[in-house]
Design a protein that fits this description.
This protein is an all-alpha fold. It is built from three helices and no strands.
Length: 85
């Protein structure tokens, strides 16, 4: 009787479910592009006015930081040249 109980689990292990086949590479690529198109439709694109405002803010910030660095450079240059003389 003990031998019969040991054989039962072994028989169950032998029965493995067959693996599902993956779709071909072309099917998967097509699915990826369809999902990409769906995700692009979900994007809330900025208006022309928002884009213009954001661009102006970025350009103004770059200009202000550039002027600040230029002034610091001039001050340090003056300080170093005064120190050397």
């Amino acid at each position: 009787m003990a031998e019969q109980e040991k054989n039962v689990p072994a028989e169950k292990k032998a029965e493995k479910p067959a693996k599902a086949k993956k779709p071909s590479i072309f099917v998967r690529i097509g699915k990826w592009f369809r999902e990409l198109k769906g995700e692009c439709k979900k994007i809330v694109w900025p208006t022309r006015q928002q884009t213009t405002n954001n661009t102006a803010v970025v350009l103004a910030t770059c200009l202000i930081i550039g002027v600040f660095i230029w002034v610091l450079d001039a001050v340090f240059q003056f300080g170093v040249s005064a120190f050397i003389r």
